Amino acid sequence: MRRTLRATIVAVTAAAAVTACTASGQEQNDPVINQQEATTPPMGDEGDDGTEVTLLDADNNQVGTVWLKDDDGALEVEVAAGDLPPGFHGFHLHAIGVCEPDSPDPTDPAKVGDFLSAGGHLGADMADHGAHQGDLPSLLVDSTGSGRLTASTDAVTLEDLMDDDGTAVMVHAGPDNFANIPERYAPNGPDADTLKTGDSGDRIACGVVGG
Prior knowledge:
Shape: globular
Strand content: 25-35%
Helix content: under 10%
Structural class: mainly beta
Number of domains: 1
Radius of gyration: 18 Å
């Protein structure tokens, strides 16, 4: 039986940016708000069983935190992010728990890029994109650079993510189309790259789970 994915996006609009007055009396955005957003646990999750994953960008700056725990037969995923570009971002679990900037793709060493060391989506060898074990809803980041996401999936467990080679949580530069390409745009259906990745683009933040 095909496993299902259920998700809820919460608090897609973050609180208004905190402002501070300069000596000239002008207001400016306080950058601390995004740092706080990236590390603040979801309400009520302090002390819960599970694991915490730090999301780092290619310059080794923390841009988010992910909390993972098993809950009633499903894996619950909660994200708090800051200092990311506004808009939707593809958000996935990748097959290898290695987050190295400017690294080769394990399946094609000639291809080098940020966080390619994490390999492809978890379960990409068993299904097309949209049905990978590692496929999750997109992360929506607001105009302040902050975003939160809560998702639940029964396609994978925390124990699965903590295997010998670990797993990586990945944020991509662009939105995920989940390989949903209307026939009027692609009469022959999505191409191989779309079926593999969802066309989310570069990898901009990565966090290691287990390994």
